[in-house]
Amino acid sequence: MEWIMLLLAAVLEVTWAVAMKMSEGFTKVLPAIVTAVGYIASALFLSLAMKKLPLGTAYAMWTGFGIVGTTLLGVLLFHEGLSAGQIVCVVMIVAGIAGLKLLA
Q1: What angle is formed at CA 48 by the lines to CA 43 and CA 49, rounded to 5 degrees?
Q2: In this predicted structure, what is the pLDDT of residue 4?
């Protein structure tokens, strides 16, 4: 169950980060609200996951999922570019996330 909580926390982290970008400096109300609610919900689910998961594993995976998710959505939704070096780094983050899960 703690892995499901961690996954929900990660999805919500990506949600609030994307909503923050869409809020244009909190000038758009709906994305600003999604940002605030998503941020709080993400922290709540992360804290629930950390009841059973080690701090280092849970936090690293949460931030790793956030990096990968926001990077992909930045490319897809906001047409942000990625250099070859950035792609290599994101792939290494994915490998690190997989390693943490397999070795936890």
Answers
A1: 95
A2: 96
How do residues 13-48 score in pLDDT, each as one tens digit?
999 999 999 999 999 999 999 999 999 999 999 999
User: Cβ distance 32 to 23 under 8 Å?
Assistant: yes
In which band, very low, low, confident or very high, does the pLDDT at 104 lie, cut at 50, 70 and 90?
low
| Structure token digits, residue 53 | 């998961």
Distance CA 44, CA 50 (A): 10
Q: For residues 68-87, give the mean pLDDT.
A: 96
The token pair at 42 is 């993400």
Burial class (CB in 10 A: 0-12, 13-18, 19+), 89: middle
Q: What are the residue ranges of helices labelled H in the chain?
A: 2-22, 29-49, 55-78, 84-103
Domain limits, the chain: 2-103
Kindly list the distances between the CA atom of residue 53 and the CA atoms of 21, 48, 49, 59, in Å, as whole numbers in the listed order: 30, 9, 6, 9
Q: What is the pTM of this model?
A: 0.89
